[in-house]
């Protein structure tokens, strides 16, 4: 009996250390991401005036759309917070519902961003047109790619939650996903300020 208990506690400890390793891995991922975005912002800061005689930010950016994108993403950050609250109350259906709302808002954000890109490209402002546009598409596109990855992760998690409910593993995943989503929100506020607001001023 004592042997079984020792084995059980050993397995539990191993599981806990495995979980904390995953949490550490997640934070390392976030730190690397901060470095990537930091580099892209630095490149943009250097290159945003290099328009090669073409139109700059002031001529190209349409602020009403960008403000709507920002509002949508900020709202999705709020709904992802509500999902975490529902999880802590053990309300699986509410948790899945708030994640679904967050995913819809995230998809709307991506849709608007893609529409903006397509419109710019159709007007002849491609990534290869000049250094400013290269830096713009790379920075904003990298953020959009991260949001898309978050959406795939969110959909996978909703499926897992509907099958398994709130477990130690799904709790960690929801917490990490919510942190990741808030992180993307913070990055977007920098994008909005540095690229768009300062661009049109």
UniProtKB/TrEMBL annotation:
GO terms of biological process kind: aerobic electron transport chain
Q: Where is the Heme-copper oxidase subunit III family profile domain?
A: 24-200
Q: Where are the transmembrane segments?
A: 24-47, 67-88, 95-115, 135-159, 179-199
Q: Which InterPro entries match?
A: Cyt_c/ubiquinol_Oxase_su3, Cyt_c_oxidase-like_su3, Cyt_c_oxidase_su3-like_sf, Cyt_c_oxidase_su3_a-hlx, Cyt_c_ubiqinol_oxidase_su3, Ubiquinol_oxase_su3_dom
Q: Which SUPFAM superfamilies match?
A: Cytochrome c oxidase subunit III-like
This entry carries the following GO cellular component terms, namely: plasma membrane
Which compartments does it reside in?
A: Cell membrane
Determine if Transport is one of this entry's keywords. yes
* A molecular function GO annotation: cytochrome-c oxidase activity
Membrane topology summary: Multi-pass membrane protein
What does the protein in this record do?
Cytochrome bo(3) ubiquinol terminal oxidase is the component of the aerobic respiratory chain of E.coli that predominates when cells are grown at high aeration. Has proton pump activity across the membrane in addition to electron transfer, pumping 2 protons/electron.
Of which family is this protein a member? Answer: Belongs to the cytochrome c oxidase subunit 3 family.
Subunit comment: Heterooctamer of two A chains, two B chains, two C chains and two D chains.
Identify this protein by name. Cytochrome bo(3) ubiquinol oxidase subunit 3
Organism encoding this protein: Paenibacillus zeisoli
Q: Which gene encodes it?
A: cyoC
């Amino acid at each position: 009996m004592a042997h079984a208990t020792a084995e059980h506690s050993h397995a539990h400890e191993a599981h806990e250390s495995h979980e904390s390793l995953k949490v550490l891995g997640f934070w390392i991922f976030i730190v690397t991401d901060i470095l990537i975005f930091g580099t892209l912002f630095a490149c943009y800061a250097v290159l945003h005036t290099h328009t090669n005689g073409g139109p700059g930010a002031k001529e190209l950016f349409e602020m009403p759309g960008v403000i709507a994108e920002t509002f949508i993403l900020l709202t999705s950050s709020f709904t992802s917070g509500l999902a975490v609250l529902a999880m802590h109350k053990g309300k699986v259906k509410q948790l899945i519902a708030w994640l679904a709302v967050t995913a819809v808002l995230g998809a709307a954000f991506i849709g608007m961003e893609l529409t903006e890109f397509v419109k710019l490209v159709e007007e002849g402002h491609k990534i290869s047109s000049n250094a400013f546009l290269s830096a713009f598409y790379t920075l904003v596109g990298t953020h959009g790619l991260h949001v898309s990855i978050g959406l795939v992760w969110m959909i996978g998690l909703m499926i897992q939650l509907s099958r398994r409910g709130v477990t130690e593993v799904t709790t960690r995943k929801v917490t990490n996903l919510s942190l990741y989503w808030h992180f993307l929100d913070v990055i977007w506020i920098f994008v909005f300020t540095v690229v768009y607001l300062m661009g049109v001023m």
